[in-house]
Structure formats: structure tokens, C-alpha cells
Amino acid sequence: MFSQPTRKRFGQHWLTDERVLHRMLEAAAVTRQDTVLEIGPGTGALTRWLLPLANAVIAVEIDRDLIRKLNNQFAKHDNFRLVPSDILALDIAAASQDKYFNFGLPNKVVANIPYYITGPILEKLLGTLAAPNPEPYDAIVLLVQKEVAERLYARPGRKAFGALTVRVQYLADCELVCPVPARAFQPPPQVDSAVVKLTPRPPAARSDDLAGFDRLVKLGFGSKRKMLRNNLKGVVDREELEAMMTALGIEPTARGEDLSVEQWVTLSNTILKQSP
Known about the structure:
Elements: E1 14-15, H1 18-28, E2 35-39, H2 47-50, E3 56-61, H3 64-73, E4 80-84, E5 108-112, H4 118-129, E6 139-145, H5 146-153, H6 163-171, E7 172-180, E8 185-186, E9 193-200, H7 210-220, H8 228-231, H9 238-247, H10 261-274
Parallel strand pairs: 2-3, 2-5, 3-4, 5-6
Antiparallel strand pairs: 1-8, 6-9, 7-9
Helix pairs in contact: 6-7, 6-10, 7-10
């Protein structure tokens, strides 16, 4: 780990609390059989703990100053690979034959991700998990903004339960590892954070049309105060939707957050079968 001024345009806040780092390592349970993807290694605070544990660490960094310093700091580690790239532009599967990936594709993700691109990074990971031949992630451990974390592990009926919750929990179990106060960073961000763990798994109820499922879920939460029958009125006739919901044991007056992930899947499958 080295000293480095932060750059606002990259949303940089250095995690300095080693207790949080160790909680992340414990949650990921990294062993010598694991190849770890680290997104935004920053000053190497997490990297230096990962390297002795893992088969390899593939770190993706966009900041040129950090790239140079990280390469210098970890040059002696044969199991360290630094990819000078924007994570959002990197096709990891396509890069699997690249020199940076000569240890193979990563099977775990452990990262303190930049908050300003949390949404796009989650979308990228979700797309990876939902692919026909998904990358073999055993665990994804992320340090994210507290509000985002609450949405990831929320349960039906809770205010934080939304479209992101449904889409994440369709593909993975999600748990809170630990809360992280702003003072754990330098400089402290304006919000608190949390570490979450996603454990990918086969869906409990499988969607017949994943793109259609995603579309309906987003529409269903389009206006959280509205009932589903109003949010989805542009997709299916109101009376027809109420009949479908009743047949599936769902209250016709339900809102999006009232349904479990499995109910969302069965409802979307039913709607999509009826749609032209």
C-alpha cells in the first residue's frame, strides 16, 4: 500500500481500515485454488492481502498513475496481473487468452468498487451471471454504498426491495457481511458503506425469457407507489393481469415489492406466454 492523492473524477476514496479488509477476505474465503478479479485496486490495500492467499490476482485499474505504482509495488509477485483498462470496457471472457489472463478466468470477485459506476458494474456482473455459459464465479464480495447494499439484500415488503433486488436475487444469494462507516476511508465519503457477498446459484424458479423478465421487472417498479396492475397496464390488459395474479395466489392489489423473486418469475412467465 502506498500514499496517493485521490482523483475526484474516478470517485477515489482509499479504504484504510484493515478490519474491513479482513472481513472482505473472510467472506470471500480465498484459497490457493482461486483466481481473483479485483476491480479498482487503488493503492493496493486489498491487493497485498489477496496475493499471499490466491492462486492469482487479476486487478483492473484505469488510473495511469496508479497503474505505474501498482506495477512497481507488486512486481516481485508472480501471481499478480494488472490490466490497464476500464472495467466497463473489458470483455473478460474474450480476454481469457490475453497475457493478463494466463492463470485462467477468475472464479471470485473481491473489490472496493468506485461508487459512481456501481450501477454499471453490477449490470456487467449480472450480465455475466445470466450468460448462456456463465463465468464460474463462486463468490462476489463487494464494498458498496450502504443504500445500494440495502437494495441488494432486501426482502419482499421492505422499502429497499426493488427491481435491482429482484434481478440480483434471481441469480445469487445475497448477504450483508458488515457495515462500513465513512471514517474507514481517506478522504471520508459523504455516505456510509457496507460489504455484501453474492453467491451465484441456479435460479430457484427459472425464467423462460430472461430479457423479457428484466423488462417486466423494471416496468413493475417504474412507479413504486402504484400497484402492479397499473405499472404493467401497457403490457397486459388490467382485468387479464388481475386474473393471472389471482390464479398464482398474488393479491391483485399488490405492488412490485410485495412479490417474492419466485413470484416475479412465475408472473412474468405467465404474462410473456400470453403476450403476442
